[in-house]
Amino acid sequence: MRKYVGVSVLILALCLAFASCGGSKAKTYSGELFAMDTYITYSVVTADEAQAEAALEAVEEAFTRVDALTGRFTAGSDVSRINENAGVGPAEVGADTLTIVELALEWAARTDGAFNILLGGVSDLWGFNSEDPAVPAEEALAEALLHTDQSKIVVDAGASTVFLPEAGMVLDLGGVAKGYATDLAAAALRELGVENALINAGGNVYVMGTKEDGSPWRVGVQDPRDSQALTAVIEAEGKALVSSGDYQRYFEMDGVRYHHIIDPATGQPAPLCSGTTVVADSAAVADILSTALFVKGPEAGVALAESLPEADGALLIDRDGRITLSTGMDQFLSEKQ
Ligand code: AMP
Ligand code: MG
Fold it and tell me: How far apart are alpha carbons 42 and 206 in whole angstroms?
């Protein structure tokens, strides 16, 4: 039996009781859009209707723009052109794409290669972005893995180009682009003077300020094996909370679950975790880390998170549902579920 499930929203934003508080005219304005292969929902709390309208538009613009630049299957996107020119020559890219690639390569090094943006060819063999995913042949996987050495990527910041020097290299920014777009959206909100907002891009969550009633935003971390249940509830302010899971994109064959987060060392779905959540100032960094820690597994993942000043907290769930927390994570966990 084969089952393929693509669930893009893995964190349930718990927008509890938007009761207006006495005297305040602040209201909650919400929007949603489908971009980057994900349902994106967002709310801003403000007394200024014009500001709210501009804010919702700015969020939409941020995700639409990053999607158009980084979509691997979007004709003419920067990433498509980089991939078409693999082994041929440098492709000129926009400033956002350059920044994302540079950030990803910095973190590739800082995660000992657990984060790898050259796994596009490996993912394609598994077919995680297709209607018909399947376990690839070993030889094909071995061949694809030969073209995943990120140290060979040539970034020319002056010329604003990215060059993949080997035919067969396939850039995939799927592990970082949503987080980057979330940061852009949050920055746009701040620029507009918005103080209270929540953005949820398929588990890439950013929370600013509070809800309409002045209480903190509460964000549920989905139980990897029960979409109706929560493993934890996080309360935070001015932070990104990003989750990765083996329940977002997977198929099952002969009782085995094959999911979309690849261990670059083997080309196989990373076997140690079922879910990870990282809290950080930057959603791009949290996006990278939630993927990288998933690959590293609970022990090495938590150790890495604790060594990084950029990570405020990490919550890792192993394949049996056991939870491991970094020392910083406690402060964000809500008692109430
Ligand atoms: P996320 O949902 O943020 O954990 O990212 C998963 C996506 O990142 C996958 O759908 C792939 O596009 C890509 N990906 C898979 N494995 C890795 C990895 N080890 N490092 C970086 N990106 C990856
Ligand atoms: Mg990620």
Answer: 9
Closest CA to 77 of 149, 183, 174, 179: 174
Encode pLDDT of 79-137 as tens digits. 999 999 999 999 999 999 999 999 999 999 999 999 999 999 999 999 998 889 999 99
Determine the distance separating the centroid of ligand 1 and the alpha carbon of 30, expressed in angstroms: 28
**Angle, helices 283-296/298-307, rounded to nearest 10 degrees:** 140
Cα 156 to the center of its chain, rounded Å: 25
**Is the CB of 291 inside a 6 Å radius of any atom of ligand 1?**
yes
Taking the CA atoms of 116, 121, 125 and 131 in sequence, report the sign of the dihedral they define: positive
- Residue 107 · residue 292 · CB < 8 Å: yes
Residues pairing with 210 in the sheet? 216
246, 224 Cβ separation under 8 angstroms: yes
pTM of the complete model? 0.93
Residue 6 CA to ligand 1 center (angstroms) comes to: 14
**Ligand 1 atom showing the smallest separation from residue 242 Cα:** 3
Q: What is the DSSP string of 97-152?
A: HHHHHHHHHHHHHHTTTSS-TT-HHHHHHHTTTSSS--PPPHHHHHHHHTT--GGG
Count of CB atoms situated within 10 Å of the CB of 16: 11
Cα of 175 to ligand 1 centre, how many Å?
A: 4
The alpha carbon of 47 is separated from its chain's Cα centroid by a whole number of angstroms, namely: 31
CB 287 less than 6 A from any atom of ligand 1:
yes
